[in-house]
Every structure is written in C-alpha cells, then in structure tokens.
Amino acid sequence: MVLKTLPGVGLGLAGKLTEHFGSEHKVLQLLKEGQTSVIAEVEGVSLKRAEALARAINGNEGFLATKESRRIHKELVATIANNAVNQSTKTRLKSLMPLKDFSLRRELIQSAMDCDYIIENLSLPVEKAQHYERVVVSRILLENLKRHCRVLIPSSEETWKDYTVFKQVSWIGEGAPIKPPEGWVILPEGANEDLILPEKCVAWFENNEKSLRLLTTLPAGEGFLKQFNQIRIPSLGPLLDELSDQADGEAINDVRDKLWPLAKKLEQQIKAEVDESMQNVKLDLSGADMLEALADTGALQRKLARQTSDAITLAIETATDELATLLSDVGVRCPRNIFKSEWPTKTDRSILDKIDSELEDLFKSSQSERLVSLARRLAPLKPKCESGLRKLVELDQWLTIGRWARDIDAVMPEICEHGIAIKGGRHLMLGCEPDPVDYGLGNCANQGDRQSIALLTGANSGGKTTMLELLAHCTILAHMGLPVPAHSARIGRIESLHVLAKAGGTQSAGALEQTLLQLADVVSNKNSKLILADELEAITEPGAGARIIAGMLEAAENHPATSMLLVTHLAPSIIEAAGKKLRTDGIEASGLDENLELIVDRTPKRNHLARSTPELIVRRLVERSQGEAKNVFASILNRF
Q1: Number of domains in the chain
Q2: 556 in a domain, yes or no?
Q3: Which helix (H) or strand (E) is 37 found in, with range?
Q4: What is the pLDDT of residues 405-445, one digit of tens each?
Q5: What is the DSSP annotation of 520-586?
Q6: Where are the alpha helices (DSSP H) in 416-561?
Q7: I need a surface site. Which of 215, 217, 253, 432 has the fewest CB within 10 A?
Q8: Which domain holds residue 442?
Q9: Model pTM above 0.85
Q10: Which residues contact 23 (CB under 8 A, 6 or more apart)?
Q11: Backbone CA torsion sign across 298, 304, 305, 306
C-alpha cells in the first residue's frame, strides 16, 4: 500500500482513507490534485495534515527544511495560483512542490512560456451522488452500485418474471428473458457498471459536459500544443451534441402539455361551428308532418337530428383532424371517436386518458432507449475522458505558470552544483515595484564572490530580509523546475533549504538550548544545503550571540556543500570572535530624500561593512517632530 509509505501514515489512517474514498487509487489521485479540503472531510484528518500529505506525495517535502521555508513556499505557490483561470488548476497549483529531479518539468514549462493558449471552463470530473429508479438484479453483489440504486440478489426459486413489477431493470447473468420487457437491460456477468446503470453513465457526461467539450476542440501544433495530442477526442463531439439534444423527449412532453387544453378548446370550437351553421336553417313542416308528430313524438326529433347531423359531423371531423395533427408529431394515433356524436358534443375522457398514458409510456420508452443507446457508446470513452480531463488540468497548470512567468518577466535559471547567483532579481511580494538586485554566493557566483559563507549588514529597512527572501524565492522556484524573477540566474542544486527567521527576542535557557541544538544539526550535517538566517544574534545577548554565531559559521565552513548568508548587526563582533576575516557585504543607506525617506542602494556592496540607520532615523524624527520631542531628538542627533 503506497499510502503507508507517506510520512505519518500508519495502517489505521491508510485504511480509514481507503474505506472513505473507496480505493487507495482514489485517495492518491485526490492528493496529487491537491484536493486537501476533500481529504480533510475524513474524520480525524485536519486540513493541515491533508496539506502535509499532499506535499509529501507531490514532491520533495524534505527540501523545505524549516517552518520559514515552508511559509515562503506556500506564499509563492499561492501567488502563482492567483493567475489560474480555472479553480481546479488553482487548487492543483497550491500543492506544487520541489522535486529531486525537475529536468522534465523544466522542459514542459519552458515550452509553456512560449504558448499563449488559454483554457477556460475546465474542471476536474465530478460524479454527483444521485439515486436512480433502476433496479439491478444480479447473483453477484455489486457493492459500488448500492449507493446509486437498488441491487437485488434473486433466490433460486425466482425467475425474471418475478421482477416485472419494476419498470427499469438491469438483469445481470443467466436467467434473463429471451425478449426483455420495455425498459430492461440484459447484460452478462462482469459487465461494465456504466452499462449496468446507463443513467449514471449519461449523468456523468451531462455533469461534465462543459469540460468534456474542451477535449473535442484542443488545438494541434508544435511546441507545448503537442501535449494535447494524446488527450484530444474529436469523436466525442457528436455524442455530446446528441446528449444535449433532448428534442424527442421535449416534443412528447410538449404534446402532453397541449393535449387536454386543446381538447377543451375543440369542444367549444365544435359548439361554435354548429351554432353558426344552424343560424339560417329553416324547418318546413306540412300538415301531414304535424299529424305524424302528434302520433309519434320521436318523429319530430329524428327530423331535427337529420337537419343538424351534417353540421355536427363536419365540426367533429374538423376537431378530430386538428387533434390528430398534434399527436402525429410524436407518432401517436388519434381515435376517430374521441368526440361523442350526441349533442352537446363532449370529449370522451376515457379515450383522452388512454392517449395521455400512451404519451407517458412513449416518453419513458424513448428516454430509456436513448439512455441505453448513449451509454453503450459513451461508456467505452469514459476512462479516456476522465484521464483526459485530469491531464488537461495538469497541462493548464503549466500554461498558468507560463503566463505568470511572462507577466513578471521571469527566466528559466541555469542549474549548477553549488551556490546561487542572480542578476536583476526582483522580490515578488512587496506590494510595489521592486528594485532589481544582483547578488552571488558560492561556486555559481562571479569571480571574487565565490565564498560559501557571507555576512549581510546594513540599514534598517534597507532590504536585508527582502534579500534573504528573494534568494529563497529563486532557490525554491528553481527546485520546482520553474522560472525565477530575475534577468538571469544560476542556482546550485541542493538537498535542503533552511530559512531561519528573525527570533522574537531573548530566549529562556531551555529554549536557547533547543535552538542551539537545532542550529548545530543544520550547520554540521554534510548534506548540500543553503542556509539563509536573519539576525540569529537575537536569541541571546549580543556578546554571547556573536561568539555562538562565529562557532556556527566555522562548523558550516567545514562542509563544502553548504552555503550560508547571515543577516546581522554584529558583523565586527562575529569577525572578532571567529578570529579571521569573513566575507561581509552591506546594503548602504546614503541619506534621506525630499520626502525624508531612506535613499538605499538595494544591491549589497561586496566586502563592505554597511552602517546601520539609527542616525538617519533620528534625523528624520528631528524634521517630523515638534515641541519638546524635537529638542530631545536634536540632542540625540548631536551625539552621533
């Protein structure tokens, strides 16, 4: 069982997930697609746990070695996902992870960056939980169908005739009738479930029609468009057209809707036509006729009937023809005696009820035949359609990344063996237009910048933390096989990224001990790694902090596969404690502009200890404050 190989997944959790979703394959599919909210519906599985499982199955989770590394990764993929047109793609993108081998992904995304094709109305295939009237009769229990319809197992004494009380039956295996009743489906054991329950098969195609249409119209071409060749299904188009064409059923229902109102209208029409035709009729009676009427009262009625019968007959014939025309549209015969001949003429309701029942049976029959016919032709295509839609969401993921890369003017980095070097790098999440920066460290860097360890000094608010995050962005993106936000970049291949955030303040003895143990483990292991640390000295008092950091840097230097950049305000003390020269770069603030904002060159100066900015901050406070506060800040400024 593959699930059990994931971190933190034992036999119990693996079994619970498999039971809930029906199969291990389904669980793995959901995790690969990043549908963590669906996984979290399982009792005992939190969203955080589901996200961890998705990360584990989608890539090299161990690469993101610290909480801060994982935070930056999460922000990155969320930013990229915001460019997605389709929600399913957006969900999948959020589970995009670094890989151990990302060469194939680089090729795919490079071609996607050159493709401007946009996919819309795409979603992963869904199967709605519906219950159908059809009854399945099988000597083998079909568990998967029990939630969709009744599944019955016939006893040895029962025959198919015992099940004729049901109008829609799928009979599986031996014992079936030679000529099945209307609405029955006869299939052998082991038949496809989509044929056993055709309603379910057709409903799946109806529910996913918009997305399925995409598979019929995918473009052909070179480059990235070649990816569509294996999932394009042109033959699906006519079937989807037929699926959406409900003309026959709608026509029958339309006739049923019109039947009774038309019959009532025709009754009134017959009366009106007879009244009109009798307006100018005169009945001439001779003396003999009058004597005959006195002797036989029925004689007068017969004479009256002869005078009116022609008019009534003609009106009934006209009305019957009109009703027959309506019914002929759906192939139903209209009886000629539907209107009673005695006066006043009425519709024979029993005949009209019979026609209505015939129309209802015709509708059900046409729908049943249509369902079975469509299911027979659609069922063989369903597996390819399912895999096609899932593949299309994956391809849309790469197209989304390609659009994002074009929008931010990103480039595919060169992959090297050690260090990092970026030119014109831009932080992605500052909320403003970033200043491009250049920086290098390790063997990837230009000549003179190839030291593995460096200290980064400089102005408060000058961009030191932003620089660390930019290097983390480029490293994570490169190891996901994605382009990076720079004019050019060389990224060293590493096993893990350690981003260490600025500590919140001086730690207690126990917390400090735990932190130091973790730091020692990071800097002393031999794995290839990049460490980006922000003001580690904040874990304790400055003097001790400098000595601790010096020891950590010395341990890191002993491992050639390690690169490390440390943001610090204690560079001189650290160098003194180390007893040797360390590369020290600086982000310098040169003054204040007309708006009293810092003037900063965001690109660090190599081998330069940059001064911090307290003097500039105090000078700004002198300009912005009033009264006694202004005097206080002026006094402080004189002390610099």
Answers
A1: 3
A2: yes
A3: helix 36-39
A4: 999 999 999 999 899 999 999 998 887 788 899 999 999 98
A5: HHHHHS-S-EEEEEE-GGGGS-HHHHHHHHHHHHHHHHT-TTEEEEEE-S-HHHHHHHHTS---EEE
A6: 464-479, 509-524, 542-557
A7: 432
A8: 414-609
A9: no
A10: none
A11: positive
